[in-house]
């Protein structure tokens, strides 16, 4: 993910730093980070699956990877590879669903990992009279306590996903242990991997637009700033000299923008041309009403397009709107 970050992250602006240990927000969005509004407002249900396999940085990935390395073989030994995968994916989805319902976005395998803990705890508890499972049960309880204590000192830990994963994992672990050979479980096991692949395929189809979201934000700011400058001038709120400075800044900002995609590029050309005509009329002291009317018409059409494409770009609200 870090390797393809250059594809989605525009050139760093002046004074903006880069973090080599974590992907940009645009990269995470392009790969399918959990977004409550997109799940419930746009119907992107695949965003309940993809965050299970995404992480907010190398440190985040390292901790969850080490946890899975310890718990995965135990769960696979207890339930078999297909039921293990089904429990992992299902509890991750439940954790993301509960998180999204409570307005919490993000990414990470923590919900699924706690799901494995719950499943194996139930498995070991049902065999607690044997030495091996009894030791495993105590080890998992200790591991769970350590994880809970450590998470108290880590900022922005998604306890909702942890709790939902643990409870759903316990339930699925019981069902898998009792009815793991049933047709329903075999069908669920066969669907786990295709569900993951289909979710990432859906994310890949949306990724090009989502990756341009940041450029769209900059375009929105420049376009609205130019429109405000023209309106303030037409209403006599600012003088001609100040107005020309503001208009020139907006035009330069629009001219520098790139990576907008063909849909937005047409709006960029219309805004820039209307602002240039307004600026030219202002410098000559001629009638500016036609240029202003064209600018406002372009803004109105752009607003309609923006409202219709919010879900496609993964942007609920453009700053300055």
What does this structure look like?
- This protein is mainly alpha-helical and 321 residues long.
- It is 73% helix and 0% strand.
- It has helices spanning 5-8, 25-31, 36-41, 58-79, 81-101, 110-125, 131-151, 159-179, 183-211, 213-234, 240-256, 262-284, 289-308, 310-313.
- Helix 10 packs antiparallel against helix 13 and helix 11 (240-256) packs antiparallel against helix 12 (262-284).
- The chain is elongated.
Task: Provide a quick synopsis of the model.
This protein has 321 residues and is mostly helical. The protein is built from 14 helices and no strands.
Descriptive key words:
321 residues; mainly alpha; 14 helices; elongated; disordered N terminus
Task: Write down the overall geometry.
Answer: elongated
**End-to-end CA span:** 31 Å
Low-confidence stretches: 1-20
* Main sheet properties: none
Helical content, roughly? over 70%
Q: What order do the SSEs take from the amino end to the carboxyl end, as H and E?
A: HHHHHHHHHHHHHH
What structural class do helix, strand and pairing data support? mainly alpha
Number of strands: 0
Strand content: under 5%
Number of helices: 14
Mean pLDDT: 82
Computed CA radius of gyration, to the nearest angstrom: 26 Å
Element layout with pairings:
Elements: H1 5-8, H2 25-31, H3 36-41, H4 58-79, H5 81-101, H6 110-125, H7 131-151, H8 159-179, H9 183-211, H10 213-234, H11 240-256, H12 262-284, H13 289-308, H14 310-313
